[in-house]
Amino acid sequence: MSRRQFTSRLRSLVRRLRLAPRSVVAAVRDRLERVAVAARAVVAAGRDRPERVVAAVLALAVGGLVYYLAIDLFPYHSVNDDEGVYLYQAAMLLEGKLFLRPGDIPWEAVRPWFFVVDEVGGEVRMYSKYSPVAPAVFAIGRLLGDWNIALGLVAAATAGGVYLLGSAAFDRRVGLLAVPILAGSPLFLLTSATFFSYAPATMLNVAFAAAYVRAARTGSRRWGAAAGTAVGVAFFCRPYTAVLFALPFIGHTLASLDVAWRRSGWSPGFRGVLGRSLAIALPGAAFVGVTLAYNAVVTGDPFLFPYAAFAPNDGIGFGTREILNYEREYTPALAADVTERIVEYFFTEWVAAGLLGTALAAVGVLAALWRERGRSGPGAIARFDPAAGMGSGEVAAVLFAVLPSVFLGEAYFWGTHNGLRNGLIDLLGPFYHFDALVPVAVFGAAGVAFLVRGAGSLLRSVTTRRRARIALLVGLVVSAPVVASAEAAVVEGPFAANERRTDSLEATYEPFEDRSFDDALVFTPDPYGDWQAHPFQYLRSGGGYDGDVVYATDGSPERDLAVLAATNRTAYRFTYRGDWTGAYFPVNSELRRLRVLEGESVRATTTVGVPAAASSTSVRVETPEGYARYSVPDAARTNDTVRVEWTIGPDAARAENLVYEGGSRFRDVPLADGGAEVDLVVTFVGVGGSSVTYRQEVTIDGDADGGVRAVWPPETRVCRLTTECGYEGTWVGPDGDYVDGVSVAMDARVAS
After folding, report:
1. Angle, CA of 629, 635 and 639, to the nearest 5°
2. DSSP 8-state class, residue 254
3. Domain ranges of the chain
4. pLDDT over threshold 80, residue 62
5. pLDDT at 325
6. Mind giving me the DSSP string for 221-240?
């Protein structure tokens, strides 16, 4: 085409456009404007992308930090044994089970902590008092190779949601700042690094809030359905917690419907608000139905929650409240006192930087009010347009309303009082108020942004932009140590307290390090009664009683023998010497292989060391049917030890090499019918009446086809000033050391 031809065609096209109908011109103009809008959107997305990448990196870093704390600070879990409940339930879900069925094993020996016992058709089954939602989340970590991975994922997801909420309530920079402020909260770090339902429930609540805001801004029913699903699952996870968090959003929804109806009636605008509200409500209601259906399956009554089946008086409301052996009259006055204490505790010791962080959050609230100063007043309602989307001021107001909803709502629940009483809140923070960290993080970030921007604006008004930036940077550097000091002050205490208990737990579980089991049975102590994994929640049988190891609580001789017979596994006894103080102080633990000796009789030899300054010795053989008392002849004594040779037969037990002095019956102490216990008690008395006692307890079965079965070695304990040695009495001396001269050696054989 020649230059002349091109010029001619261009002129012809221009003439046609001039003569074209206005509609065509308008269409072209509209198309060009759309292209321009799309181009601006692409440019804006390009600008936003770096902040979104930073937000993703921060969220992943938070998840990594929580994962590290889980494996470093809580390798044996915390001293709150509820973790074992959730992990038991998670293991059950991985095996497709809602119930534990002990079969022929006495259920009292293998009942996990906080499990409800139910008997259906003559079969005993047990289920957790907790919802299966959090255990299902934790099971994801196990599927990925490590239970703790789930904790990191939950923390990362929560941090990402807080970024979105901060961005919606203020801007993306506030959203970015909210993530490290959230991660700087001791309550967030410690609770997120443990296997409780609080962090997963908050993750679901934050997902609900973020989806709700998106639905309200875009009118998208899909986002509404996502919000409803999230809050419905949160209700299934922790019903009361979900309701308290959702109340401000429910209020916003009702206000939006009311304003839209009053303003335009059955208009497209009202129908849009109603449609997204129903999109939220219907999935939420559906999961309420799922919750009730789960109740019906496990408790037999859709309105009886497993929580209430375990402890009917352990719930919300005033009046008599009770769980296990603790009962209290929970009154409004007590609730007010507890709430006052927990508010102070929460805002001074468990948020990022303590009082400084609380002050920054207060500044953030003032910043939100300052931003709305021109839009508040009588005309605010008139400007409130639900059909136009949810403004940043509305998001900030709803987030702020979460604070009174949580604190006032939890005042109606006595659990906070119980947590303060038993010391768990001192170690792990006010975990019932975990949701309150979300608005605190967002408003804390807003406070930081407001102060920095205000300082920058002030500096730019009195000096050059470059000098203002330098001065602002210097100010941030100078203030950093103050912030770090405030953060260290709130983190140091609870972290050190939990680290101390982890050190004690490490000593407790030392016998299990680098040890694997195959078809084993391990008897565990019972300092808190017949509960498995309480307090030793690190030792769990898994999702059933057919795995590599079954843990059973040590009990009566009859029950222990029944457990041995029902399991037919290689048996061990895990025990300890010392006073169990909730892992505040360490104990000396021991894991011993058990043998079942069976024959016409069992002949045992026990050699004990003579404590320093001992002046006399007495020996007793005891059974439930009586006792015999013996003196020690010279032949059984050396300068440093006393040797006792004793025999356990099918009908009686006695000391062979000692001199009989008397007792409840005869030299031979009769055995009880069936399973029983034979105790050898050697007591040394010193000057002034001080004493040291050795006590050995042997579980025996005297009905073994005319012979006897004995579980060997016996439980051996040493104590001072009493002959009834418990676990707590086995530390001898002021620092947990035995008195000089104490030692124990034993051996046994079967006589046919």
Report:
1. 100
2. H
3. 3-40, 51-78+131-488, 81-129+514-520+529-593, 596-751
4. yes
5. 85
6. HHHHHHHHHHHHHHHHH-HH
3-state secondary structure of 571: strand
User: 722's torsion region: left (phi>0), alpha (psi -120 to 50) or beta?
Assistant: beta
Pairing mode of beta strands 641-648, 626-631: unpaired
- Residue 717 DSSP code: E
Are residues 603 and 710 in contact, defined by beta-carbon separation less than 8 angstroms?
no
Q: pLDDT for 562-594, tens place per residue?
A: 999 999 999 999 998 878 889 999 888 899 999
Amino acid at 517: F
Distance of CA 738 to the CA centre of its chain: 37
Alpha carbon dihedral 28, 32, 37, 43, in 10-degree steps, equals: 160
From the centroid of its chain, how far is CA 497? 17
Q: For 737, which DSSP code?
A: P
SS3 252: helix
How far apart are alpha carbons 76 and 698 in whole angstroms? 31
Pick from 86, 422, 411, 84: which is nearest to 238 by CA?
Answer: 86
Predicted confidence band of residue 140 (pLDDT cuts 50, 70, 90): very high
pLDDT in tens, 165-177: 999 999 999 999 9
**How many Cβ atoms are within 10 Å of 324's Cβ, its own excluded?**
12
Over residues 453-482, mean pLDDT: 83
Cβ of 517: how many Cβ atoms within 10 Å?
15
Helix (H, G, I), strand (E, B) or coil at 322: strand
Whether the Cβ atoms of residue 94 and residue 543 lie closer than 8 Å to each other: yes
Determine the 3-state secondary structure of 130 from DSSP: coil
- Burial tier of 87 (Cβ tally within 10 Å: 0-12, 13-18, 19+): buried
Which parts of 95-220 fold into alpha helices (H)?
A: 107-110, 133-143, 147-169, 172-183, 186-192, 198-218
Q: Which of 715, 735, 733, 734 is nearest to 725 (CA)?
A: 715
Instruction: Write the DSSP symbol of residue 387.
Output: G
Cβ pair 750, 599 in contact under 8 A? yes
732 or 451, which is more confident = 451
634 secondary structure, DSSP code: G
Q: What is the predicted pLDDT for the residue at 28? A: 47
Residue type, 323: I
Helix (H, G, I), strand (E, B) or coil at 554: coil
Do the beta carbons of residue 151 and residue 141 sit within 8 Å?
yes
Distance CA 413, CA 244 (A): 12
The two tokens of residue 437 are 């960290």
Looking at the chain, the number of H-run helices and the number of E-run strands are 22, 20
User: Please, are residues 448 and 480 in contact by the beta-carbon 8 Å criterion?
Assistant: no
Q: Which of 149-158, 258-267, 411-420, 701-710 has the lowest mean pLDDT?
A: 701-710
Q: 613 pLDDT band (50/70/90 cuts)?
A: confident
Which H or E run includes 712?
Answer: strand 707-720
**320-336 confidence digits (pLDDT tens):** 999 988 999 999 999 99
Separation CA 134–CA 214 (nearest Å) = 25
**Alpha-carbon dihedral 311, 316, 321, 323, rounded to 10 degrees:** 30
